[in-house]
Amino acid sequence: MSLEHAILVSLLEQPASGYELARRFDRSIGRFWTATHQQIYRVLKQMADDDRITGVQVGQESLPDKKVWSVTPAGRAALLDWLHAPVRPEAVRHELAVKIRGAAFDDAAGRAALLAEVERYRADHESVLAGYLAGERRDFADPAAPDARAALQHVVLRGGIAYERMVLAWLDDVLATLRALDPDPERPAP
User: Fold this and answer.
1) Ranges for the Transcription regulator PadR C-terminal domain (predicted)?
2) How far is the C-alpha of 178 from the C-alpha of 118, rounded, in Å?
3) Which fold, 3-84?
4) pLDDT digits (tens, 9 = 90+) for 92-117
């Protein structure tokens, strides 16, 4: 998948300025595709040059004008072509997993440092999960039958929630394994 496809999906959901689009990536699209603001603006320019999006200047009171982007028929056709193409499983690259395997060649002090890193990493994932759950409560609290867009957005969010829960369970296993290898008599048992 390219950043262009994520932008096309977002703009089909709702036209937006580059700034608004970047905030969406920070808030929700970033659940499955991350991009810097600079990358987004660079791709927006290229997509406009390729006639996949078009921009309209919108005046703002006491602020500079903004350009609101929307998808052109050519952009929609490009997205549909991509949607109909088969998806290949992604290759997983996980730096922490390699470090954990490498810990077999380190001493107890090195494994203790790794244990601290895994604890920090786990706290980060707990925070992401909490954010996803808060977003779910905020955006999908209405149990009324959702439209297709809301149903599909929610299923993607539920995938993120399931992923974070799986990562947390795995990290708990890693922590238990590291603690079993080098028990610390001053650390209370979990």
Assistant:
1) 92-179
2) 10
3) Arc Repressor Mutant, subunit A (1.10.10)
4) 778 899 999 998 888 888 889 999 99
